[in-house]
Amino acid sequence: MPDQIQHIEKWDSHAGRKILTQLARGEIQAAATFQRLGLKRWEQSWLRRALRRNFSTQRRTAPIPWRIIRSLARELDTQRETLAKRRTSLSPDQRRFHGNKTHLRLLEQALASPQNDNEWNDWRKRHPHIKPDLRGANLERLDLSYLRLDSVLLTAANLTDCNLVGAHLSEADLRKATLFNTNLREARLQDSHLEGAWLHGANLTLGDLRRTHLREALLSSCTLNQARLQGADLRGAYIWGCSYSGIALDGSTRQKGIRLGLSDFDWINSVIEAKPGSAFARPEVSVEIDDLRVADFMSQISEYPERVAGMINAASSKLVLLLGRFRGKQRMVLDDLSSNLSQMGFVPMVFDFTPPENRDVIETVAILAGLSRFVIADLTNPHSVPLETQLVVPTLAVPFIPIIRKGEPAFSMFSALKHKYPWVRPLVKYRTNADLIRRLRRNIVPRAIRLAEQLRKQKHIGQRAG
Hints:
Layout: H1 14-25, H2 30-37, H3 41-54, H4 66-84, H5 101-110, H6 119-126, E1 178-180, E2 198-200, E3 218-220, E4 238-240, E5 258-261, H7 267-273, E6 287-289, H8 295-303, H9 308-316, E7 319-323, H10 329-343, E8 347-350, H11 361-370, E9 374-378, H12 385-392, E10 400-405, H13 414-420, E11 428-430, H14 433-465
Parallel strand pairs: 1-2, 2-3, 3-4, 4-5, 7-8, 7-9, 9-10, 10-11
Antiparallel strand pairs: 5-6
Helix pairs in contact: 1-4, 10-14, 11-12
């Protein structure tokens, strides 16, 4: 190789393709060539893998396909171009950094790599017991998604505008860190510490936050859709303007005293007024809740009370309450009804869950019935259904469809309810589950919908007359 070749500006050039061809044929040694060219670590790793993949030892005597050489050259140039658009150096403002400078320099070296194979990850593999100390580091606008950041000390670090998609951050210490517009989609944050951290506009969609510590953290305008929060500690966390559709919680998720902000929060002014090293200004707490799943509902009621009617209308047009026995073969009846109602576009509710602490069973059934388009009650070998029926039917003008297996007697008071309240439909007798499903589709649902519409019109006439 000519001594004047010290660096390849563009691999898809005559010089670059020539070197790739010589490497593929084994005419020059890879290690010496890489050193002579001054290639970065990621380029060396990438080239070694590409050469092994495309040019095995057995094939080196065969003609080298020109199209493969050209493809490799272009792919390598593309990666270089992508890297050139990315920030590959730390912010010069590191006044708040109080960690290990050697660790920080090692991380900066790895920023010039678009691959997992870099100086930082290699060092982490060789020293798995060392916890890198990056406390107070200013890492804003960096792409850290390919770096191993598990167990890293990032206390009070600035991770604003960082790309951490799918990042390994398990057991990381992010206490009092700043994460503004940080992309943490699908990031692994299990067992990490985020106490007192501020996450604003952060994307945590599909993130793994199991057993994550979020006490006293502020999450403002964040997206937590489908995040896993089983076992997470959310006690005392501040939640303001977040989205949490489909979040996964369980009995081990600690949610006592979640502080929900419903009033305006000037986060920009909070940043401006914050003193270095001091805690962020908390938004005004409107209410404390003990279950994150009701946060959006509470926000809607507080901020948009006029939407409550719309929410009730939406629920009462699709929900169907199913009552009956929850054990034995009669449970299969409820399951078949539920499955087929779902196929018909309804949202069935089988009341076989523990009632809320603030309401007993009857009150819970009444609330669910009041939100339903209609109620289907299986009177076959009843347990609590007779009591629920006698307390719900007189107070709620909601279509009530009683069903019973043929040959079984209805409870004694049912006939009186049927004659007294017009929204109670005649008893539907079925022979088998298949027979019931046929009746459900042909008769039960169409008639229940017609009756619900009649009752709706009557209620509106009554309201106008009043």
